Amino acid sequence: MTDSLKCEQVPYSTLAAQYGTPLYVYSQQAITAAFVQYQQNFASLNPLICYAVKANGNLSILRHFASLGSGFDIVSGGELQRVLLAGGDAEKILFSGVGKSKAEIELALTHNILCFNVESIPELERINTVAGELGKKAPISLRINPNVDAKTHPYISTGLKANKFGIAYNDALTAYQLAASLPNLNVIGIDCHIGSQLTDLSPLVEALERLLVLIDQLSTQGIQLQHIDLGGGIGIVYQHEDVPDLKAYATAVENLLSGRNLKLMLEPGRSLIGNAGNLLTTVEYIKQGEEKNFVIVDAAMNDLIRPALYQGYHTIINTNTTRTKEFVADIVGPICESSDFLAKDRSIAAQAGDILLVQSAGAYASSMASNYNTRCRAAEVLVNGGEHHLIRQRESIADLLATEKACL
Ligand code: LLP
User: Fold this and answer.
1) Ligand 1 centroid, distance to 239 Cα (angstroms)
2) Complete domains list, the chain, with CATH
3) Residue 324 Cα, ligand 1 centroid: separation in angstroms?
4) Which of 184, 254, 306, 323 is deepest in the core (most CB within 10 A)?
5) How far is residue 252 from each of residues 88, 153, 203, 215, measured CA to CA in Å?
């Protein structure tokens, strides 16, 4: 049977036949459910949930988040333009990132975004200058690096002293004083983001406690903040991780914020969309090497770089559920790199022509795709009940070469 596995009501085999593979498939209902879960668990705090666009910036996905009332956490002028094009509300946009250019700051100020999450003193000075040139006051928050260990993969840990992110905890008060003295800034908040795919709540709570100490110190110096932004980072199940309970997180935050007049903001990415998407891929060949077996598929590290870059684990199942002869193999793509694998030493029953489902590919999959080996980026489909819509067409070689020239 190849029809038993479905995204909502649509068999994956139907989607693969109609749109081809590799194909990212997203469930709209799963995205909605994840967003509503945040809203419900944090209901008493009524936070502004700002979806982290970098997780998956497809215009239809952004439009869906906007329709749910979501705000957006962006890290580039490009992401800002995506959100606006998708109908997102500029007044619900937070602008994070360590390297905002002058042009990006101008664009964000022109559209009156909610807040800049500032990561350094030179950035603070640049925003002040650009705002002055435009005759505006820029709303800012300082991203503080609380120096807590998020206990995640080192490449996605951001809250330690050694990381490039945020303003050092010990420099925070001085930075706020400077910010308050600059004429074209409106100091409204404080933020942090300590890492991604966190499976333990305690570093998040510790970071919050550390920010509250600063908020109190600032208040005695006459700097009253209006909001606190705890970033994203909640992990999801890829294999059998014990992920944080949102209710427990919400309760801890609620207790710590009680009696304070602070608006809460959150910037989740992965936990809103990671498990709502899968990557469909066709088996091209089964190859028996000298030491290992290889299932060679038509998706590759350019479609899903997480295994190669972060040793990320993605569960892979065969949509052809009639196969029974299991063997252990590396599941690899056609790219000419030994790091081009989707899985290592997996037990799988598969034959050439079967369609495999690489799970939990909603976040940091299509958004990190590349054209390495002159491979066209894959198509994306959004499923809602029995309906499915192509939300990004498969790139063509013509698209891919359109901006290049063969000079001389
Ligand atoms: N806010 C800021 C400032 C961030 O840098 C990030 C993610 C988020 C929010 C959203 O974090 P999330 O809720 O998704 O954990 N490509 C890596 C993950 C990189 C995360 C970068 N920052 C991966 O595939 O694991």
Assistant:
1) 19
2) 28-270 (3.20.20.10), 274-401 (2.40.37.10)
3) 38
4) 306
5) 30, 24, 12, 18
